[in-house]
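Narrative of accomplishments. A recurring question from our advisory board has been how the design workflow behaves on a single, concrete structure rather than in aggregate. To address it, we present the structure tokens for one chain from the evaluation set, followed by the sequence designed for it. No filtering or post-editing was applied between the two.
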């Protein structure tokens, strides 16, 4: 039996039994699951935890390498199975099919490239790459030798790259010369060169040539991927790691300017992402009762459309699916190129069985003509997934009716960069779905709702609403923020006593299904991207004409939430369209195009509390054109500014 089969729950009754066991005896529960994996040495202690420090350790004393679980152990039975199908941006270019054996060889060889360039266990390696198989190869190669990868989404600006590299003192940067995304080339290496002016720790840059265009190279520092490969040995034994050694750092936005480098460790992350992948998606197991896929008894093709630069890609394009021995698709392009039918064309072409995407993409695609859907055969699809933000009712039904044809369960998966893996979600074909609800917690997850006074709202078969916290550790939770454990404690473990606070609000129905209602802190989710308001405000404030600014989200058809900037200017400065454009440009350069505010309103002042904190609640209401009840503004330091802001709202 393959590892995946040994992990999969098969019925609602089995789910309930597993859930109960996971709460009554968590250590025994996770022991039995972790035993399904390949370890060099079994752990001595399953769990040690103290949320007041906070400190969490899973499978202490266990020795393993995650790549042996993703690659080596499959070679016997699945060596010739396709591990990765890569679909290029340009539909006329050939797809690549890479078997588990081929991937194993490529990872081993590239791991030797890292070693040859001085990378050792524990070193940090920054990866800034497009969606090509070499991105997965680079991350697995790091894991093979015990180096820590820090992937920076290849849509981020050079200053975002530099600050992330510097925060964790990366020794190496791996990138590509350029990439086509849609019809536009993106010059990644030029972005890197700009960043590298301010990153003294980077000694080597490895450059994958994705296009034939000339590439600027700095002698001594920059090396081509292929040339380095020529010099590398084929075999690379896996470094034997401790379960609690760091696997990767991934930056996510916070409510202060600096991004948080979330630290994930090897053992717990592997166990949890693989277990949840196998159970939520039920690949190579679940077939709906409809007519689908009957003539095609081949193994499932799973496609998650996220970028590997986000946690979704880490956990559910690379580590989870590969450890489960499933075929995973990587797509280089965008949903709109060459037209808005591209996703459906790919599903048809590759016989995709599992399709996992974000509500923002669903909404954008739902706006297009249905012909773009209906001209493709979507009969292979069995399971649909959603992630990144609450999925609204309309999008849920469009997805269900037109893509799933009413007989593919939708798994609405709620989780976070910090949680490492899916926390609340249906299990496809096994537990019930409910439109716009992430439904039930996965085995091992103990969510709670907290009221305004910080007290737990007990579950008594009644509807309730509150803030979502988790009261017991799970294996893939982030262990700390790189270099700033105090901040980790402050952000996640200070709101409630001995609990992890998610930053989200949630509603719970009478049967215990959760619906996530959105962020309650200063983080805005734009098109599924988690953006902190503070770094955007900082970027705006750097403009010489700007005195102060406040960013809030407002509802947007496609993006879900878009950004609205309120800006006050220094004396004698003129707020015109030119300045608006400059401000948006500035944000784009410092953070990236996704953070550009849709609207920029110049205001005389920002509403503030007496302690000087900007009252974003009021600004949010004005931006959302919901000014009927602004609440009590009399306690403001400057109540008069509110009228001006309302009158000139965009
Ligand atoms: C925030 C985490 C998890 C990978 C992608 C985003 C929101 C995520 C859902 C969902 C409602 C969701 C939450 C969460 N979110 N999934 N299914 N339903 N909201 O990871 O960038 O760390 O963002 O995304 O607000 O806190 P992230």
């Amino acid at each position: 039996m393959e590892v995946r089969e040994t992990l999969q729950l098969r019925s609602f009754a089995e789910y309930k039994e597993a859930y109960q066991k996971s709460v009554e005896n968590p250590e025994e529960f996770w022991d039995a699951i972790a035993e399904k994996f390949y370890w060099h040495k079994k752990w001595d202690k399953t769990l040690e935890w103290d949320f007041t420090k906070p400190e969490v350790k899973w499978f202490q004393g266990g020795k393993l390498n995650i790549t042996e679980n993703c690659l080596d152990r499959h070679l016997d039975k699945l060596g010739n199975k396709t591990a990765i199908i890569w679909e290029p941006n340009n539909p006329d270019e050939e797809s690549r099919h890479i078997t588990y054996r081929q991937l194993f060889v490529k990872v081993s060889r590239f791991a030797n490239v890292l070693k040859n360039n001085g990378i050792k266990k524990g070193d940090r390696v920054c990866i800034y790459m497009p969606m090509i198989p070499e991105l997965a190869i680079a991350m697995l190669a790091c894991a093979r030798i015990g180096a820590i990868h820090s992937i920076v989404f290849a849509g981020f600006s050079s200053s975002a790259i530099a600050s992330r590299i510097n925060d964790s003192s990366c020794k190496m940067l791996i990138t590509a010369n350029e990439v086509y995304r849609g019809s536009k080339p993106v010059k990644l290496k030029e972005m890197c060169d700009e960043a590298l002016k301010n990153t003294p720790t980077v000694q080597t840059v490895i450059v994958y040539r994705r296009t034939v265009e000339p590439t600027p190279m700095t002698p001594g520092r920059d090396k081509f991927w292929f040339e380095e490969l020529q010099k590398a040995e084929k075999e690379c034994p896996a470094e034997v790691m401790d379960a609690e050694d760091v696997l990767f750092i991934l930056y996510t936005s916070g409510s202060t300017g600096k991004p948080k480098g979330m630290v994930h460790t090897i053992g717990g992350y592997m166990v949890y992402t693989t277990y949840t992948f196998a159970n939520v998606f039920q690949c190579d197991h679940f077939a709906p009762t409809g007519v689908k896929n009957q003539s095609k008894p081949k193994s499932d093709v799973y496609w998650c459309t996220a970028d590997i630069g986000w946690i979704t890609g880490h956990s559910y394009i690379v580590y989870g699916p590969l450890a489960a021995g499933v075929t995973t698709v990587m797509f280089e392009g965008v949903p709109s190129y060459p037209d808005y039918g591209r996703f459906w064309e790919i599903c048809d072409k590759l016989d995709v069985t599992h399709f996992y995407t974000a509500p923002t993409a669903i909404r954008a695609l739902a706006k297009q003509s249905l012909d773009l859907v209906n001209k493709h055969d979507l009969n292979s699809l069995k399971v649909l997934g959603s992630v990144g933000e609450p999925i609204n009712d309309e999008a849920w039904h469009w997805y269900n009716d037109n893509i799933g044809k009413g007989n593919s369960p939708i798994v609405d998966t709620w989780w976070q960069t910090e949680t490492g893996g899916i926390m609340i979600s249906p299990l496809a074909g096994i537990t019930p779905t409910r439109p716009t609800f992430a439904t039930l917690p996965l085995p091992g997850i103990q969510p709670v709702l907290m009221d305004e006074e910080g007290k737990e709202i007990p579950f008594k078969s009644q509807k309730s609403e509150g803030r979502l916290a988790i009261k017991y550790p799970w294996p893939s939770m982030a262990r700390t923020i790189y270099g700033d454990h105090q901040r980790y404690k402050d952000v996640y473990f200070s709101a409630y006593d001995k609990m992890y606070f998610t930053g989200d609000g949630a509603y719970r129905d009478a049967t215990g299904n959760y619906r996530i209602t959105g962020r309650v802190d200063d983080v805005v989710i734009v098109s599924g991207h988690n953006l902190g308001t503070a770094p955007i405000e900082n970027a705006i404030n750097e403009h010489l004409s700007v005195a102060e600014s406040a960013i809030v989200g407002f509802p947007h058809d496609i993006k879900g939430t878009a950004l609205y900037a309120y800006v006050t200017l220094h004396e004698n400065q003129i707020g015109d369209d030119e300045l608006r454009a400059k401000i948006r440009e500035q944000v784009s350069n410092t953070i990236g195009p996704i953070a550009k505010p849709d609207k920029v309103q110049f205001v005389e002042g920002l509403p503030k509390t007496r302690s000087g904190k900007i009252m974003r609640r009021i600004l949010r209401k004005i931006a959302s054109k919901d000014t009927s009840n602004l609440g009590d503004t009399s306690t403001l330091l400057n109540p008069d500014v509110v009228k001006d802001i309302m009158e000139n709202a965009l």
